[in-house]
Amino acid sequence: MKKVIVVGAGIAGLTAGIYARQSGFDVAIYESHTIPGGASTSWRRKGYLFEGGMHWLTGSAPKSPLHKLWREVGALDDSVDIYNRDPFLALEVSGQTVCLYRDIDKLRQHFLQISPADTKEIIRLCGDIKKFTKITMPISDIKGVKVKTKSSLPLSSLFGLLPVLPRLSSYANQTAKEFSERFKSPLLQLLFQNIVGPDWNATSMIFTAATLAAGDGGYPKGGSLGMANRMAKYFEKLGGTIHYGKAVREIQVRDGMAYGVIVDEDLIQADAVIVTQDTLVAIDRLFDSPMREPWAVRMRKNTKPVLNTFIGIGVKADLSDMPENLTFVTAEPLICGGVPQSAISIINYASYEGYAPQGCTAVTSIIMGDTYDYWKACRDNGTYEAEKQKLAEAFIEILAKRYPKTAGKAAVWDVATPLTYERYLGSYKGSWMSTLGKGSKMESYPTKPESINNVYFAGQRLRTPGGLPVAAETGRKAVQYLCRDTNMVFQGNI
User: Fold this and answer.
1) 0.85 exceeded by pTM
2) DSSP letter for each residue of 32-88
3) Residue range 53-87, pLDDT digits in tens
4) What is the pLDDT of residue 166?
5) Contact between residue 428 and residue 280 where contact means Cβ atoms under 8 Å apart
């Protein structure tokens, strides 16, 4: 039985490990952290669970092609309840509220009530959302691989793509902010900018709305860590081994052939290595010299990382009467990483069982932006912890002004900066996705390098913008290449 080492126990690594075990390989995963999940993670502080990774999952709906993949790797099963929050997002400005509903007809009527002057654009947008619901992420087999059960792109998917193509380039060639400026209502403008981010390619915004409208994008019970733990448990049940607290320092290569990895000071030999650590970091740090293949050069040049600062607050109050996902505009901005933030987003987990002590609530906020250099300077000059506390206290004050019942009720706070994510993930600047900007195309990078045999890459960085579906799909693809190269039959068992 050929031995395979997987670098990293994130979603891509667990997916690769599971498919490799199902296909007959001896598999060991080496993970630098003490838990599985990678960027898809959550953690507890004084009885409060802070969801720091997944907030919705493409493929949670049974009719989605991705759903079969999630079930094959144990991420979802019949015991996992899926929560479809609706409205998915609410935005409030000066006492006015606009919501992003899943039902297209309800969404259209809601928008028309808010801004009759935007009737033409609203009808056009809702029509586009309906068209985009026909597009799903395909799960197919690579050319030449032997498979137990074939997976191919259904013809219906191609037909569904035809009415979308004329609109796709229009959204791709404008930012979400530019798209929002087609509308007269400032409230609608701000909503569209906050679905994904004002500088993101508008296709990300329309795809998000379409995913929700298609009945997908639910939140699995237990969230990020729950899903990662299910996958890890399934992998171990299949006979795989996970070595936690063990970072792969280098991949050993001789005569253009990988033959093992260095962990601590030990050489662990293997017939193949699947690298699921951030590819942008791996190509520079895991080999004797940085990888110089054309795709690697292109990745370094074109990648625009997505970074954020995360705030988690444990509140000694039941906030179930508050919106679950709300963005509101403050009179005095929150200063995060030296940058003022007037639009504050919060996720309220009051209705989520087990996320807080009885009668209490976990509240989180994600502040987007590349503040890496700011936080690095704070760490270097010794003010890092003080600045995190200052940010948390400012956020708590803003929350108390907006919701007085939270005043004086903060039991615990936690702040994760880009440096936190960098430390735990080993990712580039602590990033967990790549930005898809105006005019950007969805780039894909190869699973196999040309200069080294027996090495395979997987992970969200291999296809922009990334995310959990890409992590899982590339993990699956890496094993299909491995199977093809070793004349093994690829198997996915439910």
Assistant:
1) yes
2) SSSSSBTTS-EEEETTEEEE-S-S-BTT-STTSHHHHHHHHTTSS-TT--EE--SSS
3) 999 999 999 988 899 999 999 999 999 999 999 99
4) 80
5) yes
User: Could you give the domains of the chain?
Assistant: 3-41+55-79+223-303+438-490 (3.50.50.60), 102-139+152-214 (no CATH), 308-429 (no CATH)
C-alpha 180: how far from chain center? 24
DSSP classification of residue 102: S
Q: Which two tokens stand for residue 261?
A: 């990895």
Give the tokens for residue 80: 């996992």
Tokens 């952290």: give the residue: 33
Mean pLDDT of 240-244: 98
Place of tokens 């031995």: 3
Cβ atoms of 64 and 58 closer than 8 Å: yes
Predicted confidence at residue 331, as pLDDT, reads 87
pLDDT at 153 over 80: no
- What are the two backbone dihedrals, phi and then psi, of residue 306, each rounded to the nearest 5 degrees? -95, 125
Closest CA to 115 of 175, 189, 174: 189
**What length is written for the chain?**
494
**CA distances to 55, 354, 448 from 348, in Å:** 12, 13, 42
The DSSP annotation for 207-267 comes to: HHHHHHHTT--BEETTHHHHHHHHHHHHHHHTT-EEEET--EEEEEEETTEEEEEEETTEE
Mean pLDDT in residue range 434-443: 81
Cβ-based neighbour number of residue 418 at 10 Å: 27
d(CA 247, CA 60): 32
pLDDT in tens, 452-475: 999 999 999 999 999 999 999 999
Dihedral over Cα of 33, 35, 40, 43: its sign: negative
Could you tell me if 356 and 49 are in contact, meaning their C-beta atoms sit under 8 angstroms apart? yes
Distances (CA, A) of 38 to 14, 266, 371, 418, 428: 10, 24, 21, 14, 13
Given a contact cutoff of 8 angstroms between Cβ atoms, the answer to whether 314 and 412 are in contact is: yes
